[in-house]
UniProtKB/TrEMBL annotation:
<feature type="transmembrane region" description="Helical">
    <location>
        <begin position="37"/>
        <end position="56"/>
    </location>
</feature>
<dbReference type="InterPro" id="IPR036890">
    <property type="entry name" value="HATPase_C_sf"/>
</dbReference>
<dbReference type="Pfam" id="PF07694">
    <property type="entry name" value="5TM-5TMR_LYT"/>
</dbReference>
<protein>
    <recommendedName>
        <fullName>histidine kinase</fullName>
        <ecNumber>2.7.13.3</ecNumber>
    </recommendedName>
</protein>
<dbReference type="GO" id="GO:0016301">
    <property type="term" value="F:kinase activity"/>
</dbReference>
<feature type="transmembrane region" description="Helical">
    <location>
        <begin position="133"/>
        <end position="151"/>
    </location>
</feature>
<dbReference type="InterPro" id="IPR005467">
    <property type="entry name" value="His_kinase_dom"/>
</dbReference>
<dbReference type="Pfam" id="PF00512">
    <property type="entry name" value="HisKA"/>
</dbReference>
<keyword id="KW-0812">Transmembrane</keyword>
<feature type="transmembrane region" description="Helical">
    <location>
        <begin position="102"/>
        <end position="121"/>
    </location>
</feature>
<feature type="transmembrane region" description="Helical">
    <location>
        <begin position="7"/>
        <end position="25"/>
    </location>
</feature>
<dbReference type="Pfam" id="PF02518">
    <property type="entry name" value="HATPase_c"/>
</dbReference>
<keyword id="KW-0067">ATP-binding</keyword>
<dbReference type="InterPro" id="IPR004358">
    <property type="entry name" value="Sig_transdc_His_kin-like_C"/>
</dbReference>
<dbReference type="InterPro" id="IPR003661">
    <property type="entry name" value="HisK_dim/P_dom"/>
</dbReference>
<keyword id="KW-0418">Kinase</keyword>
<dbReference type="InterPro" id="IPR036097">
    <property type="entry name" value="HisK_dim/P_sf"/>
</dbReference>
Amino acid sequence: MSMYYKIVLFQVLIVLFPIFVYHLFFHESDRERRKPYSKLSILLIIILIFSMSFPIEFTEGYIYDFRVIPIIISFVYGGLIPGLITGAVLIIYRFIIGGDGFNVALVDFSLTCVLLIYMEYKLKFFQKKNKILFTSIVFWVNTFIVMLTLFTKDQSSQLSFVFIYYTITWICMMMVVFVIENVNQQMAIREKLKQDEKLNVVSQLAASVAHEVRNPLTSVRGFLQLISEDDNLRESQKAYIKIAVNELDHAQSIINDYLSLAKPHTEEMSSINISEEVMKTVALMTSYSNIQNITIETDIQDSLFIKGNKGEIKQVLVNIMKNGIESMNIGGILKVRTFERIGLIFIEIIDSGKGMTKQQLKNLGTPFYTTKEKGTGVGLTISFQLVHAMKGKITVQSQPEKGTNFTIQFPSA
């Protein structure tokens, strides 16, 4: 029995040591982890092989190890492709090892993989506590299948050992989940600090511009309006004054954009029917899209509510829809969807335009960065700031010449 304890401790070391190394030296984003050759995927396959190479053999052909940990973790934090690769490695290596228990392993992990594949899409939206609950359920379902299979094969003598062994395995898996979640938290904090630092610079600039420029513009506009009321002016002169006033109003709107960066109106937040706001914005943008010969397709779930500011929500939607329309050639399609998943409201705005490179995606939302020839880069920066102020999040997926997908996420009210 002491030999069993030594092997169990060695199994724990095989799993936790690479994960702690990953925590200390590698900082992959969620998108990077979903690649088949990500550092996490490679580490999990190494853990799997080493774990299966040093198992506990209770009776001839029935071997136990921590293989379930890399399988579940690869699906939950890596995604479908890394999960399937890890599962294939497990089955192939278990076949090479041989023994009567291969059929048990094949049935057990095939059913586990089917469950994980079915839940793969929803896993993307799970928060930390939901992932802990889900991984625990999958793990104990897996354990129950093993114990049930052993019982049907007249191996009841192993059941008490299996229960104790898998309890230790579950504790080890929970440690892995907490380590990876800690990496996620560190990444989120780091990105937030970088974004806040950039926005703080623009906020200070906005306040300065407002004080130094807004008052003179208001004065100039007032005097121009007084001059325009002079009956001695010719019509052409009045037309010139009207153009000047319009340009001053445009300058005023730009200043208001900068002020939105400096101070979003979070004190005016209330419950909003976001489905109605999205439909109103689509109706507003339809005339603009018709000019560009762009079709807007909608799939809007009714009666979805969030906490926010109506004016700022509209500003965000207009900014992103306008960018999508302008990115497409004549005859393109802009898709707008709203739906609810696991207590979260999602707004998807998908265009079929020119798309963006990885470097452009990385810089998106940065103050003064734009991919448009005549853009200032302020619109998207404002949108990111406003959504963040309303406890939301914007994620962007894009490929060159294949279009861009903006996903806005809010907590349900």
